[in-house]
Write a structure and sequence with these properties.
The protein is an alpha+beta fold. Helix content is about 25%, strand content about 25%. The protein has an 8-stranded antiparallel beta sheet with strand order 16-12-14-13-19-20-18-21. Strands 5-6-10-8-9 form a 5-stranded antiparallel beta sheet. A hairpin with a 5-residue loop joins strand 5 and strand 6. Helix 10 runs antiparallel to helix 11. The longest helix is centred in the C-terminal third of the chain and has 15 residues. The chain is globular, with a radius of gyration of 21 Å. It starts with a strand and ends with a helix. About 50% of the residues are buried. The structure holds flavin-adenine dinucleotide. Flavin-adenine dinucleotide binds next to strand 3, helix 3 and strand 10.
């Protein structure tokens, strides 16, 4: 088999596994790899999924690292045609000078177009823009066996919606055409509100969804009692040129993704624990203004604060960390409150805790978003009692009719997943027809029988 043997993990650094890693430089080379008849092949972008979705133990992992060319960028229509390994950061660098930004951005811009489609990623604007697939005009995919197929939502809806959110299990996306979003500057005009508890947090988020294009709450997961669910909510929209200072107005589309700080090499692995996270969350909450409006922030500060620190995932030490993200349908506010109680009662230290409302979901068979509330938590994997807490959260999510996010999940049992994704059987049937020889597989798909 081509490539070299490597050990891979996702961003959470749990569940390492070894595979052959191939990095084809052309679509023809990629097709050849898929045509070798190897069993156990999966695509990999920038490895920003938290779990083992882009790994395949003892199989072949096809990285799109060298399929990273922007083929065409139309400055008038904002249509970008690119290879699947192009990152969102590359698209920003190429699009912003002509006034175009990515239509949906997750909390990191180090994500490829292939990974963004395969996880059907969402951003702070889901309530108005939906998830990534809504902005994909077409993509070219190599099916298991290597045959190319150009897919649009109109001409081939079943393959389109199995691939969007399908976690790489329908084939290797090699190219895509994306509709970018017009912006008047590269800065965001941001309003910040500090809320006292979970009820105020949810009320402000609902109200801000009507007024802003982007909004999200950063919550103090360890606060209890009257402060349960207290948060700092930041909401905003792209600034107009008139909002900028004279210095910024000289270069209204400036975007400098460069310089990033690294985690110091001797950073003690056990430093993320309930005491330090409790102190850090409390200090950060008190430092935030009760209310501030009209602050001008850069794209990096507003959308991707964690990208400012290179390899920040290493602060959790060798045990890594587990992300848990759920969505609960609208109307389940009591269950959202209960989930905050479960986390704070367990004293489980989630360093990054983000609450947001989603708009309606799309047709993706395994796409995660649905109209309602989404909460993302991350815990050091070695947190005592974590398995019990996450099991309780699973039950709460299933009872409320919600689901967990496949790009982050590393432990949900297969039968629980089936309760969360009502179209899973349809996805499995389509996979069986598309890939009867079982060529495509990932560690995630093997665990969950996807
Ligand atoms: C700091 C941080 C913040 C994040 N915030 C968000 C957020 O706000 N919203 C959100 O939705 N997600 C978020 N994520 C998750 C991330 O957006 C997704 O996991 C995304 O899929 C990662 O893209 P990638 O290129 O790194 O893909 P990988 O992690 O390498 O792969 C992810 C999946 O995509 C498949 N895949 C990759 N490339 C292709 C291809 N060419 N063809 C077919 N399948 C492919 C893989 O097989 C795998 O199943 C965040 C991640 C991090 C680290």
């Amino acid at each position: 088999m081509p490539g070299r043997t490597v050990t891979l993990t996702g961003w959470g650094r749990v569940s390492p596994s070894s595979a052959e890693l191939a990095e084809p430089a052309t679509v023809a080379d990629a097709a050849e790899l898929l045509g070798t008849g190897a069993r156990g092949v999966i695509a990999r972008g920038l490895g920003r999924s938290y779990n083992n979705a882009a790994q395949c133990a003892h199989g072949l992992v096809i990285s799109t690292a060298r399929l990273n060319r922007i083929i065409d960028m139309d400055p008038v229509t904002g249509l970008a045609a690119c290879e699947a390994g192009v990152s969102l950061e590359q698209l920003m660098v190429a699009g912003l000078p002509a006034g175009w930004f990515v239509p949906v951005s997750p909390g990191t811009r180090q994500v490829t177009i292939g990974g963004a489609i395969a996880a059907d990623v969402h951003g702070k604007n889901h309530h108005v823009a939906g998830s990534f697939a809504r902005h994909v005009r077409s993509f070219e995919i190599l099916l298991p066996g290597g045959q190319p197929r150009t897919v649009t939502e109109q001409a081939d809806p079943s393959l389109f919606w199995a691939t969007a959110g399908g976690m790489g299990l329908t084939g290797l996306i090699v190219r895509a055409t994306i509709q970018l979003k017009p912006v008047a500057t590269s800065r965001v005009r941001v309003d910040t509100v500090r809320t006292a508890d979970i009820d105020e947090t949810m009320a402000v988020l609902a109200e801000h969804d009507r007024r802003y294009g982007y909004t999200v709450a950063w919550s103090d997961s360890l606060a209890r009692g009257a402060g349960l669910g207290r948060s700092v909510i930041t909401s905003g929209d792209f600034a107009e040129p008139a909002d900028l200072s004279p210095a910024d107005a000289k270069d209204p589309f400036a975007f400098r993704p460069g310089a990033r700080l690294g985690v110091p090499p001797g950073f003690p692995p056990g430093l993320i624990n309930r005491y330090t996270v409790g102190l850090a969350n409390g200090a950060w909450y008190r430092k935030a203004p009760r209310s501030r409006s009209g602050e001008i922030q850069t794209i990096g500060t507003f959308f991707h604060p964690l990208d400012g620190i290179r390899s920040w995932n290493r602060v959790y030490g060798p045990g890594g960390f587990r992300q848990y993200q759920y969505v609960l349908p609208s109307g389940c506010e009591a269950a959202v409150r209960r989930s905050f109680e479960l986390v704070s009662q367990a004293r489980a230290p989630s360093f990054v805790t983000v609450l947001k409302r989603f708009g309606a979901g799309d047709e993706g068979l395994l796409s995660f978003p649905m109209a309602g509330w989404t909460l993302a938590l991350d815990f050091p994997a070695r947190t005592p009692g974590l398995a019990g807490l996450l099991g309780s959260l699973d039950r709460l999510v299933v009872e409320a009719g919600g689901r967990v996010y496949l790009a982050k999940d590393s432990r949900v049992p297969p039968d629980v997943l089936a309760e969360m994704y009502p179209r899973l059987a349809e996805f499995r049937k389509l996979r069986a027809e598309l890939d009867p020889a079982g060529i495509l597989a990932s560690d995630l798909s093997r665990r969950l029988g996807l």
